[in-house]
Amino acid sequence: MIDADGVEALSMRRLGRALGRDPMRLYRFAASKDELLDGVVELVLADLQVPRAVDGADWDVVLRRCAHSFRAIALAHPHVVPLLVTRPLATPLGLRPIATLRPLEAIVDLLVGAGFDPKGALHGYRLFTGFLHGHVLNEVQEQVADPDETDDLLRLGLHRLPARDFPRLRALAHELAAYDGAAELDEGLDILVTGLRHQLSAGLRSGPAHRAGGAGAS
Length: 218
Known about the structure:
The structure is a single chain. Helices cover 66% and strands 0% of the residues. By secondary structure, the protein is an all-alpha fold. This is TetR/AcrR family transcriptional regulator C-terminal domain-containing protein. InterPro entries: Homeodomain-like_sf, Repressor_TetR_C, Tet_transcr_reg_TetR-rel_C_sf.
């Protein structure tokens, strides 16, 4: 129902009609619409797997697989993306659906296993998810006004924008129309992973020195 018409179209009454049940009976299974939406998040994120770094795969390879898996889920359920990305922000961490916390635990564990200290691993997770959520939100909002139109300006509906106020956007019509979400994701991940590798190597270099300095002082 959400896939077809969006989150706002979902109500207990409409769901009851679709199931052929009294809507009031649904509250035996979900105490509120919010709880029902949490269940939707759990169901969708059950398909997101964060594989362990096995078979010689580096931690960055695992992050890339996870990112593309999340993107695939988002593109399959674009109307659910706001539930996955923005809804958890209004809920304390420990009260969020368990399915939203499993990737956090798995990625932090992955980065700690790669050599990051726990605080650095949490920082890495936040950078990763912040970039990933922003990319996915942007991609699902890249709607085409007329997919059969061959002129890029008309295809994206940019012809409706005043040329004087939006010269840059209108001039970028071809680049906007040629947007490749998977390629853009990989380009962003390249930058992210390069930064995390730099932090990891810097931490590994400074770690023994700090320990040696502490031992000498004592």
